[in-house]
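Hi R.,

Here's the input for the copper (II) ion complex you asked about:
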Amino acid sequence: MLTRRDMLKFGLAGTGYVILGPNGVISRADGDSLPASPPTTPFIDELPLPGLALEVEPFSDLPEQYLRYWVDPNTTRFFKIASEQRVVRFHSQLPPTTIWGYKDLSPFALQSVGAGSLQPLPFNVLGPTLVQGFGDLHSLLDMSSSCGSTRPPIGGGSVVRHINCLPPDHRGFGVPRTTVHLHGGHHLARSDGFPVSLDNPPNYSPDGFPRFIVMEPPGFVAPPNEPPSQPTTELCPDHGVVTERQKLDYYYPSLDPGVLDIVRCVSHETEGDKGERPSTQWYHDHVLDFTGPNAYRGLAGFVLCFDELDSADENDPNPAALRLPSAPYDIPIALQDKRFAADGSLVFSSFDHDGFLGDKFVVNGAIQPYLEVKRRKYRFRFLNASNARIYRIFFNDGNPGGQTFPMDMIATEGGLLSSPLRGVVSFMIAMAERYEMVIDFSKFSTGSILYLENRLPQSDGRKPDDGLLPQGSGNKLLQFRVTGDPPFPDNSQVPDVLRPFAPISQAEIAGAVRRSFRFDRTDGAWAINDRFAGDLDTPIATPKRGQPEIWHLENSSGGWWHPIHIHSEFFRVLARNGRVPSITARNPVVAERDGLARKDTILLKGGDSVDVFLRFRDHLGPFVFHCHNMEHEDMAMMARFDVVP
Ligand SMILES: [Cu+2]
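And here is the predicted structure with copper (II) ion in place:
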């Protein structure tokens, strides 16, 4: 299988599109002449909601490092998820589509329908949703008092066993090798979904970074110089016995940043950073050079995080609880764009290095679905899970010249804002970013029809086109049908204070190590600081654990736009283009300034630069940072950094 970088090397880039169908059929098309997807009637299918992942029995064969420090089978939860090929429907008028998706292997999970069925199939594109609880799990006092002595595992958190059950004989776009990144997580490097197995992993980490991080497909035969992969007790539904190289256990501790440093006597703090808790995360494939096609095939799912403030209960009697709208009025919204052949198969161009764009707008795996809503408040967790499309979302009546309605923004990738931004008219969301909005439908009458509309035109994967489409001429993504009053009074609220936190202190800024990363293009390849990007054998930076850092990220690649994602820690945005970011609920909302928001992905428009504050706590290296335009990422717009002791 050619990687994007191979294509570049062989001069194959820029020779028009080569379409690799799911059966390995190759057809060629020039420039913009990719065939259009078949027509589909919008808003006749209901918005699918991914199911929750269900716990399984504790695993008895965990890595020794997990048991020594963290995993307590009495308090840690266990999940088992397979990557599999399956058949779904993106739209009731489209033939079934073969995708790759995450499947919950709990015996109590709803099983997806087998491949080859021509019966109407349920929508099940997104993987099972993982729910993580933060706080109230551990007594920090106990931890610090046992500093330096042998102590029992901390417990809590989740172990997710991922198993690669993809077809080993796959032809077509994507590769059946997987590594899973929980995007927005703060966890061990070995659980971070590093994009490639390392021949020579760093040995300073007590977390034991294993050599094999990438999961191989069923039947994988190890090279002659490596020991054969031993069978395990696991089974793939279609491929039988799972070998060691096919599975990996990911541990997500759900601890506040800094806690592990306290436990290990590295830090003199007395408690972790409670103000830094995530809200909406997601997991997706992250394998080197093929993240774009593998995620486009469907390997993505949600992670929702809760604690005593954001407690998943709008009727919570705890006076500290925020009582934000909770399930079933708390709804994840994954935005994607895809392209389909007449037979329903996914179309993808492996030769489009600018960024692949689809012509169908997909929400949670359905093309232009509808959602029936009650006259009350809803929380929507927006995730841009597209490869290269940037959206600007409006909530409106869909009519040309009609009305637009305000929303309340409550969270971004870095969790809840310190206080809500009210009256937001529209927001821009780049790849991998998350924004959470509360929409109040109580002011609309029963029978009202409303829309989420993307008014940002984009005809090139490099960046959106200039300007905005007029209302009613954009891409209507989701239709709301107001069906009446809720069965119970709406006790949810959006309080004036959410999760307050102070901006980074001047003392910490003054003591920060400063690094500068300039993203550039040379001869059609990505460079970082004039060095060919994508070398994951050696780190481009080695930040010391606990040391404050300010990274200057600069986009010098002409007009291209890049959402840059840094793994392991949320960052604070100190400046954009040399100035403190403004805070405005106007059009579009800007919610990135330190003290209001934390971020893990930051959009650099053409020529932009940002200064972000970071402090890598708890977990030693290797991690990566990269552009989240997945085609840029797969063209090696990525670098490795190692957090060192
Ligand atoms: Cu990019």
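One thing worth noting: The helical segments are 4-9, 64-69, 140-145, 259-263, 291-296, 506-510, 630-634.

Cheers,
M.
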